[in-house]
């Protein structure tokens, strides 16, 4: 069974999936959502869970640098709770401080244009979140 990693924002959710052995994370897509309109992409996540035989979901928890949890972190906690209720899977919150920054740095070093970076940054951040979790399990 695979593990899914999610980078949850207000407009998009980056999605990554582990390989069958749980060693590596691969970005698979970015789901458009509208947090203010109550559209969270749960239907698409459910499809991906079923398609990839996901047994566990890791949701990035954006903590402040002083380890406190701000409004974005609270929103991610609520998102994770909703996922757990809707899908009945184990949902783990994973400290994702600087994951988007790290993803941005990798894309800059690869000389990816600003327009292309915007399309893949959330998916890359999900990869960093999931890979961090997978590495901690070894």
From TrEMBL:
Its EC number is 3.1.-.-. It comes from Jeotgalibacillus soli. GO terms for biological process: rRNA 5'-end processing. It is found in: Cytoplasm. CDD domains: YqgF. Could be a nuclease involved in processing of the 5'-end of pre-16S rRNA. This is Putative pre-16S rRNA nuclease. One of its GO terms (molecular function) is nuclease activity. The lineage of its organism: Bacteria, Bacillati, Bacillota, Bacilli, Bacillales. InterPro entries: RNaseH-like_sf, YqgF, YqgF/RNaseH-like_dom, YqgF/RNaseH-like_dom_sf. Belongs to the YqgF HJR family. HAMAP family: Nuclease_YqgF (MF_00651). Gene3D superfamilies: YqgF/RNase H-like domain. SMART domains: YqgFc (SM00732).
